[in-house]
Amino acid sequence: MQNSPQQSEGLQRNLKNRHLQLIAIGGAIGTGLFMGSGKTISLAGPSVLLTYVLIGFFLFFVMRAMGELLLSNLEYKSFTDFTYDILGPGAGFFVGWTYWFCWVVIGIADIVAITGYVQFWWADVPLWLPGLVCILFMGLMNMLTVKSFGEMEFWFALVKILAIVGLVLAGLYLILTGFVNPKTGVQASFTHLWSRPGGIFPHGIDGFFSAFQIAVFAFLGIELVGTAAAETQDPYKNLPAAINRIPVRIMIFYVLALTIIMTVTPWDEVNPKVSPFVNMFTLIGVPIAASLINLVVLSSAMSSANGGVFSTGRMLYGLAQNQAAPKIFGKLNINGVPAPALLFSCALLLAGLVLTYQEGDIMEVFTIVTTISSIGFIFVWSMILLAYIKYYKTQPEQHAKSTYKMPGGAVMAWVCLGFLFFALCLFSRDADTLKGMLYTPVWFTILAIAYLLKFKKK
Length: 458
Known about the structure:
By secondary structure, the protein is mainly α. It contains 21 helices and no strands. It has helices spanning 17-28, 31-34, 37-44, 48-72, 79-87, 89-121, 128-142, 146-176, 192-195, 204-210, 212-218, 224-229, 235-264, 276-283, 287-321, 339-348, 351-358, 362-394, 396-401, 409-426, 431-457. Helix 6 packs across helix 7 (128-142), helix 8 (146-176) runs antiparallel to helix 15 and helix 14 (276-283) packs antiparallel against helix 15.
């Protein structure tokens, strides 16, 4: 097997299992839930719950395919390793760079979201200021040791989890006590999920499909679990546990939280341009609580962006080690951190500041950049499935010995590929997502040219 982007002996591997698990959970609970759920609710109504369940179901099988491949050869540290080995260096090059690019784009989306959250308190704040402060903070944080980063991200993730649990408990209390919205006179009730005009599918199947893009974005990052668990001392135990538990937790957080939101505030009263987490507490007349929730979602977006910077730095460092990126990105600072790679990734986040000025609507910008990252991740997930299909066909003995087989084997892998292609086609239905979709081929064109030039040199 060739050296792959994730095989980096100079980096410090000091993250404990509790760090890795909470980083994985926290990375998936970010702007997709706190900022994007308002738009998905307005597009799909109560059927948005089915959207999350459906996407989560198929992505679980993608992760099972990844898990079987990682455990088939313990030299594999992530999906970039087995795509290099099974599908060839070209596939590994595209997957590695696309994954790096996607996390940069997610970071840009988080910078855009952070600007919106700060404007909740200070509407007149300069658009460039919140994002710039966040980028400087993340750059400093990532220059610390890996263990320090893991500890801080652990608490970031824990705050997000506790906030969601608190929201669910508060919502249940309002429902059980028969809370009536003082502005609309509507009483909190589970019947809002099916009794409002239009029922469960108020905008028909078109509305249901329109919510897919933001919903897909909500699950970006769950593949980090496999990468993290593969680096633990007992991957045969920790990797299956991580894959089997994390998707269930994520689905509970999303589905249960959105159920509570639409029960307290009927779906047709949810403002798509405002985070429903903040809006729910504002509607019940508790502005202090709304500010606290806004602080939580602000820290959530910062945590997600910070985790993305960490991931991009590591990926860029690994690509440089594999001679697939400039050599300078393969250097470490005194703390064993890939400083040049981290600084470069942070610098690219400045694009988020530009987007907030070029577009008047924060949510429109958010939709564009999340569409680009969602398409990139669909490509990465598809390559994982293609690698599994080839592995299943060319290494039947290895598959037979596997103790963690993907349910359904190659047939289920093809079904998942079909679903991902279907989800990709749905992105063209909305004007905002179509705009982001049209920008995406530019990246793959640049990547193809770069690879061809690299190949010719060799």
